[in-house]
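Deliverable D4.2, example record:
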Amino acid sequence: MASNATLHSLFLIALVGLLAPILVGRLPHPRIPEVVVLLLAGIAIGPHALGWAHVDDAITLVADVGLGMLFFFAGFEIDRAVVTGPSGRAATRVWVISMALALVIVGLLGASGYVRAVIPVSIALTTTALGTLIPILRDAGVSPTAVGQAVFANGAIGEILPIIAISLFLSTRGLWIALVLLGIFGVGAFVLASTVRRFRTGRVAGWIRSGAKTTSQTHVRASLVLLIGLLALSSRFGIDAVLAAFAAGAVLRIAIPRGDMRLESQLEGIGFGFLIPVFFVVSGMHLDIGAIIHDPLRMLVFFCLITVVRGVPVLIAWRRRLPGADAIRVALYTATGLPLIVAITDVATETGVMRPDNAAALVGAGLLTVMVFPLVARLTGGQQSALDVEPALEH
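Output generated by the structure prediction step:
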């Protein structure tokens, strides 16, 4: 049985998860994303502010599964045709440019002594919080539009490539060992995806579907086994858990390429109803607000760097594909980052590579992007028709 302190903290975290959408629903338009309220409330009740709730191993486990669910949905939402098509290739080129730009700028800051962890900070600046953006894009009605599909392409690349970079360059096992382990994990995920594709109409799939409409809920259980199994496999090989969760979502999409509204609704109930809000509240609780208050300029510097490194290259590239206002919206959404920034700073500080003040400032900058960029994106213009998606993406 969990301790009284754990249950008390978990109750407050769940209460925040309940009150956040109620509060957002009563705010005037344009409303801030619910994620912002969850993060700010987490800061308020956490150990660095009011101290009403604390994070222990049990709550950390729930939050980690919530992070996994966030990227599980991101992997499931990805349209492979978009990622591997012209927009995906363009997004890959843009990310490479962003990474090169980040290495130059952060390298100069490192030479001046402003930062110590050049590679981790550079990777953090090039991320996109696609998992965070999915509910925001849905609520804004942007997902089926050309803007939404462009954000999905940039967001997928802005998650996949930084995750791979994290697994390679922040591993304690060395670059070559990390590369071998990443290859083994990739082969395992490919074999699993091929197996799922081959047997999705077979007897086992029939057994799972037959129990889907009963209290057994076998399709939900199978999806969770897939997610937790790949998380366990990634832990065994020292691969970043975010990559495993993303891969699990992609494998599930292969299993049900046309989707399954019943399954998706039930998984969203588990994820967005409990696990994902816990992750965001706990992320706020981890944020050292004292370090940010002591040196707010550092957070603003990183916020500007994210804008320049991630947003500007996307804006330049997509101005040739979309109207000006829509290209700005794509750039703003793409420059929104937080979960991967949290993951990168956690790993870098645990290994002693990154200074705690820079870690807090980076997370604070990521929080600012979630607070500011989606809101500004919604204010920049009307929503585009879903019928305009394909022509916009084929340019």
